[in-house]
Amino acid sequence: MENRTCVDFLQWALPRMGLRWAGLRRVRRQVCKRIGRRLRALGISDIAAYRAYLEQHPDEWRMLDGLCRIPISRFYRDREVFAHLGRAVLPELARAAAARGETRLRCWSAGCASGEEPFSLSLVWAFEAGPRAPRLGLEIVATDAERHLIERASAARYGAGSLKDLPPGWRERAFAPADGLFALHREFRAYVGLESQDLRAQAPPGRFDLVLCRNMAFTYFAEPVQRTVLPRLMGALVGGGALVIGAHERLPEGAADVAPWEAKLGVYRKAAACGPSKKDAVVG
Ligand SMILES: C[S@@+](CC[C@H](N)C(=O)[O-])C[C@H]1O[C@@H](n2cnc3c(N)ncnc32)[C@H](O)[C@@H]1O
Asked: Do both 120 and 60 map to the same domain?
């Protein structure tokens, strides 16, 4: 399929799915290849026929939406962000949680891909912040719309390239070589729960001290969708909890109850008085 033909098609289709062309432009080749494969699988000869097919088969939109998801991730992506989480954010959130009498620090990784982000967080906790808060446990809920990514996260096996940004020595401490890959030791997976979930429709139950939503909603979702997703993310946080978005992302204008904590790293904080504690929470 011609690049121009596919771009025209994406510019027509993405807004209909609540997605942004500006976000997907950089990864269009990958998306166009997948669409080409889908056309061949359906036996459809060109993109005009696929448009007609979409109009006649509304279920196909769900398939196309899946073809537009970008699973790129790696451990410790944006090193400065994870270093800052370990040095400043997790210790501060741990102090606040302990002061409220909590026994666990709860974190949510929304759009967790194959587990690189939540497992990075579990390593930061195990090697840096956790030893300074010995009475506090950690729980991470990791969600992604793609079931096959959740299955890969459950396997927790990664290529060397995926681990290259980890601090020196962490790979050796946390992974065992396994058939040319590296398997994360069980102890670092124990507190990570994995679920297939679409952020546009759902949040995991309960409230969280830390929510990571990086390189997903605020890159790929259209602004009106970002505006519906942000209250879901904020509603999942305890008062004083932290929201981390991608280092190159921006929150939609006029976001309420959220202030920059370390904005150049994408770290924001919910106003302290907002929302009940985790014990009172019921989140749908
Ligand atoms: C580019 S990856 C980012 C992974 C990780 N957060 C990071 O920053 O490295 C985006 C992930 O978001 C997931 N995703 C896309 N749309 C989603 C949605 N509506 N609900 C939940 N996950 C979604 C994709 O499947 C993909 O795994």
From this structure: no
